[in-house]
Amino acid sequence: MNWFDRLSDNQKGIAFLLFASIGFSLMALLIKLLGQHLHVTQILLLRQAGMLVLVLPAIARKFPGSLRSSRPGLQILRMAFAVIAMLGGFTAVIRLPLADATAIFFAKSFFVTIFAIWVLGESVGVYRWSAVAVGFAGVLIMVQPGTDNFSIYSLASLAGAAGAAAVMITLRILAQHDSADTIMTWSALGIGLVMAVPGIYFWQWPSAAEWILLGALAVASYFGQKGNIFAYKYGEASLLASLDYVRLLWATLLGYLVFGDIPGAPTWIGAAIVIAAAVFMIYREARLRRLRARDVKIEKAVERGLGP
Length: 308
What we know:
Strand content: under 5%
Helix content: over 70%
Shape: globular
Largest sheet: none
Distance between the termini: 48 Å
Radius of gyration: 21 Å
C-alpha cells in the first residue's frame, strides 16, 4: 500500500483539487501569454482541438453511441453557455491581471444560486440570499463601476462567470439523462465546431514557441479537468468548494512572477468578501443537508419503533 492509499477520501480529494488548481492556473497563464498575439477565438479553437486529441480514445471506445443524446436541445444550450463562459473568461484573463480576472470569476457561486431558483425551482432562505447580496457587493468593489479604474473586461469576466454557472445548472439536468461520455463528446466536438468559423477568420499562424504553448494549454486544461473530476469523486463537495479559492493564490503568484502584476486593495478586499460569503453559503448548505439527513433517520427509526 503506497502513501496515497493510506489517505482518507477527503485527503485524496484535497490532493486532487490542489493538482487541478495548479492545472487551471497554468491554463490561465498560458491563455494570457498566447493572447498577446493570437485572437481569443483562435486560442479557443486550438485548445478544443488539443483537448479532442486527448479525449479521443475515450470517445472512440463508445462511438457512435457516445453521440446519442436523449436531450440534444439541452446539449446545444449547454454548449452555448460554455462558449459564453470561455469567451468571457478567456478575454478577461488576457486583458486583466490574472488575480483580478480569477477573483471576479468566483462570482460563479452566486449565479449558480440564482439560476438554481429560476431553473430548478430550488428553495433559498434569507441566509443564502444575504450571502449572494454580500458576495455581489464584493464583486462591485473589485469591478469599481463608475470610477477611472473600471474596465469593460471586468464585465467579460462576470459574463464568463454567469455562463459557467449556467453550464453547471444544465449539467445537473443532463447528467440525469445522458452519460458522462456523451456530454464530454458533445462538448469537445460542438464547441470546436462553433469556434471554427471565428477562429479561422482571425487566424494568425502561430510561431514555433506559440505552438508549444498551445500544446501545453491543452495538456494543462485536460489534467485540470481530470483532477477536478477525481477531487469530487473522493472528497466532500462542500469541503472542496471552499478550498477551490486557492486558485486565487496561484493566479496572484503567477501574475507577479511573469507579468509583475500586484493586485490593488479593491481586488484584495472584494475577493475577501466574495470568498467569505461563498464559504458561508457552502457550509450552511452542508449543515442543512446534514440536519435533513438526521431528521430522515429519526423519522425512519420512529416508524420502525411504531410498527407491528
